[in-house]
Amino acid sequence: MRAETPAVPDHALAQALLLRGDERAFRELYSRHTPRLFQFVLRIVGGAEHDAEDVVQETWIRATEALPTFRWEAAFGTWLTGIGLNVARGLLRKQGRWELPMEPGTPEPFRPPASDGDRIDLERAIALLPAGQRAVLVLHDVEGFTHDEIAERLGIAPGTSKSQLSHARRALRRMLEPVHEERHEHA
Known about the structure:
Layout: H1 10-20, H2 23-44, H3 49-66, H4 76-94, H5 122-128, H6 131-142, H7 147-154, H8 158-176
Helix pairs in contact: 1-2, 2-3, 2-4, 3-4, 6-8, 7-8
């Protein structure tokens, strides 16, 4: 049985890319981080795969351009996710699909499943949320960011982040609850 060689740290790969233009280092970083990045931006853009692919490509372009200024105060994947979030938000704004976050206490819109009585899956339900709620939910519940971190990334107050998360969770519960139909028995 062969012992596995330890993975080269992201920092060393980034240095190889920066100093020598090492294509293998870039490919390793790309293969290591793209699956998670793609799933993240896919959720942010509401399940539109083509949009998610475009966002991932633009994210890597921006990341390689900004790599010389990356200070390694966060993990490379966290930094990359932040870039992906900004690119996704920009795309949604351009498409007119990014609304300003609602103020706390504003009732959230509800979009029911495609046909009454159907139970929809979680990914589809997340995609149906308004973009601001979807972003907060994904950042908090999937990516593990705190409300303060979300507020900083989205340019909102921490209280708005908490409110958006509450609205998003409530809307998801409603969308995912099975619809109970009344059945009348004829005697």
